[in-house]
Amino acid sequence: MADKRNNEIEETKIQGVNGPITGWLDGHTILVGLMAYPILHTMSPTMHNNAFAKLGLNGAYLCFEIDNEKLPGAIDAIRTLDMRGSNVSMPNKKKVIPYLDKLDKTSQMCDAVNTIVNEHGVLTGYTTDGMGWLRALKKDGQDFAGRSWRTANPGYFQNQERRRRPGTWRRRIPGPGGYCSNQPFG
């Protein structure tokens, strides 16, 4: 929507399920999303669209209610619509793998994907849960180098570590004597 007086683009606000999509929506808008079932409870659009607005990025993050039956068509849509990518949640984290072109090392080890990136029609699957969790803790000032620690209800992170290091639930943290342990307390 052009302002006729000074030819500036007005900010577009569209009310989504979890709040407004704020920013520029035009032919250059980067489309990303989340594929899961069920989906309506998620706050992901609010978080990502607010980040786009704060960073001044021309992007829109949408939710797509995709179960296993709809998954092949949804993956085709990423290419067809030239989406930049999508997050993937249950029940699709394992089922999505055969429809992708490549997997990163962590996804291969975990046999699961939570992020798809579209690079000119080549879809690569990534698993970012574990490292994202560790980076968030580090950013919060937690330093695990040289320390042992345990996670309570680690969920998918636990599965990543178990697959990454079969036969053990411990992960080496850089520094003397540092490990992540997913063993029960006690």
From TrEMBL:
The keyword Amino-acid biosynthesis is annotated on this UniProt entry: yes
Keyword Amino-acid biosynthesis found: yes
A GO biological process held by the record: aromatic amino acid family biosynthetic process
Segments of skewed composition (Basic residues): 162-173
Record keywords: Amino-acid biosynthesis, Aromatic amino acid biosynthesis
Superkingdom of the organism of origin: Bacteria
InterPro entries: Aminoacid_DH-like_N_sf, Shikimate_DH-bd_N, Shikimate_DH_fam
Shikimate dehydrogenase substrate binding N-terminal domain residues: 34-116
One Pfam family this sequence matches: Shikimate_dh_N
Pathway stated in the Swiss-Prot or TrEMBL entry: Metabolic intermediate biosynthesis; chorismate biosynthesis; chorismate from D-erythrose 4-phosphate and phosphoenolpyruvate: step 4/7
Region of interest (Disordered), residue spans: 161-186
Protein name: Shikimate dehydrogenase
Organism of provenance: Lactobacillus delbrueckii
